[in-house]
Amino acid sequence: MEGIVGAITADSLVIEVGGIGYRVFAAPAILATAVPGGKLKLHTFHLVREDLQALYGFRNAEELGFFNLLLTVTGVGPKVALAIVGSRATPDLQLAIMTGDQAVLVAIPGIGRKLAERVI
Questions:
Q1: Among 36, 51, 46, 48, which Cα is nearest to 3's?
Q2: Do the Cβ atoms of 45 and 67 come closer than 8 Å?
Q3: Which CATH number belongs to the domain containing residue 97 in this structure?
Q4: What is the pTM of this model?
Q5: CA–CA distance, 116 with 102 (Å, rounded to integer)
Q6: Which structural domain range is residue 80 located in?
Q7: What is the CA radius of gyration of the chain?
Q8: Taking the CA of residue 114 as centre, how many other CA atoms within 13 Å lie in the half-sphere pointing to its CB?
Q9: What are the start-end ranges of the E strands in 27-116?
Q10: 67 domain-assigned
Q11: Distance CA 4, CA 75 (A)
Q12: pLDDT in tens, 37-77
């Protein structure tokens, strides 16, 4: 998704594409660098549930792919997966998971020991 940045909130921003504003949840690093009125391109995940539709935005395809992988873990929903992806560089997170370094995951708000074990 590529468009003009509109409003920015604590956990999301609006990207205007073709005259329509889309609310996109994104990591703090993306929100911190977005400039209202500036252009922004994000790789997006469109969540569709019976009672909800939401967009989640990422800087690159690697982050999006990792987000999708995290969603396959029991107990990891889109908000937790976004918190994990947004906490560090994807290769650092992948290394922590491959080496069983729970401390990296537990340091992320919303991730406890049990959930960290499931992710690993």
A1: 36
A2: yes
A3: 1.10.150.20
A4: 0.91
A5: 6
A6: 72-119
A7: 15
A8: 3
A9: 39-41, 43-49, 52-58
A10: no
A11: 34
A12: 999 999 999 999 999 999 999 999 999 999 999 999 999 99
Number of independent structural domains in the chain: 2
Same domain, 81 and 44: no
CATH number for position 37: 2.40.50.140
Q: Nearest CA to 28 among 86, 76, 70, 110?
A: 86
Give the tokens for residue 3: 């468009």
In a domain, 65, yes or no: no
Q: Are 21 and 6 in contact (CB under 8 A)?
A: yes
| Cα(79)–Cα(83) distance, integer angstroms | 6
Beta carbons of 24 and 42 less than 8 angstroms apart: yes
Largest CA distance in the chain: 46
For residue 31 the two structure tokens come to: 């929100």
